[in-house]
Amino acid sequence: MTKRSVLVVLFDDVQSLDVTGPVEVFVGASESLPHPGGYEIRTASLGGAPVLTSSGLRIVPDGSLEDAPAPHTLLVPGGEGVGRPDPRLVDRLRAHASRAERIVSVCTGAFLLAEAGLLDGRRATTHWAYCDRLARKHPAVDVDPDPVFVRDGEVVTSAGVTAGIDLALALVEEDLGREVADQIARHLVVFLRRPGNQAQFSAQLAAQTAKREPLREVQRWIAEHPGGDLSVESLAVRARLSPRHFARTFRSETGMTPGRYVERVRLEHARRLLEHTGDGVQEISRACGYGTPEAMRRAFVRTLGSAPTEYRRRFRPLDIG
């Protein structure tokens, strides 16, 4: 089996975990194979100079970006250094990307890809805290703040920091099969290997906290009673507002409609029950306010791309004992 070459781009103030997380996955996959194959990792910087990560760790690259051969996978990590990219680095990224079969960014590495024009007209993501900034700075990029990672053709972008491990595991599964990816996940003691379209964070974090106490109380009530009557009319009564005023105010203060917020809370609660309990799908659907297993199935397929039973099978906590 021919090894797939992975070129990891290094620069000053890179986030060290954006580099080491994916590298550990790729190296582990190679070592797990019963025959030569997997990945050949090469790190490179401008001129081959050592780089200092944002945490103070010094990394000595394997060589220079100028002399690096064309890679199968070009991996661009993020970090504070993306805020002041060297034009020579952007030029080298553009040159390597033109020859790579797959272009990958971790966290804010998406800013470097965007700077090189590699995300124009494409759907992409980055760390949730920087999605708005990426969209403002590069309006030609279709920024999606929700997923853990996004694939658009040969370009794959991921969310913040540890999402790079999720992305690398997904690429290993694509290249070498699910069995190898699961084995590496167990070795790294990854608690939950997340699907790419899973939300980066919980509904409570995704939405802003309302300024008014009645609306904050409604948010708490929704989180604590996902199986209850969470219609706009019922929640408006709890907030002591008319349904129309409640819906308008809730969206204004949280950045999310009541229906969308309820949908996220219910899905999040259902996922936790599937991951951590042996409760049946019918029981979970009732506990989470879906009413029927079919309603929950539709919500899972629409949002996560898999039915509840498949989600439980693939993304339950890994047995590493």
User: What is the CATH topology of the largest domain?
Assistant: Rossmann fold
Counting structural domains, the number is 2
Q: What would you report as the Rg, rounded to the nearest angstrom? A: 22 Å
What spatial order of strands do you see in the largest sheet?
Answer: 5-2-1-6-7-11-10
Shape: globular
Strand content: 5-15%
Rounded to the nearest angstrom, the distance between the terminal CA atoms is 31 Å
Query: Given the helix and strand composition, which structural class is it?
Result: alpha/beta
In CATH, the architecture of the largest domain is 3-Layer(aba) Sandwich
Full CATH superfamily name of the largest domain? Class I glutamine amidotransferase (GATase) domain
Could you name the ranges where pLDDT drops below 50 across 5 or more consecutive residues? 191-207, 317-321
Arithmetic mean pLDDT = 86
Tally of strands: 11
Which descriptors apply to this entry?
321 residues, alpha/beta, Arc Repressor Mutant, subunit A, 14 helices, disordered C terminus
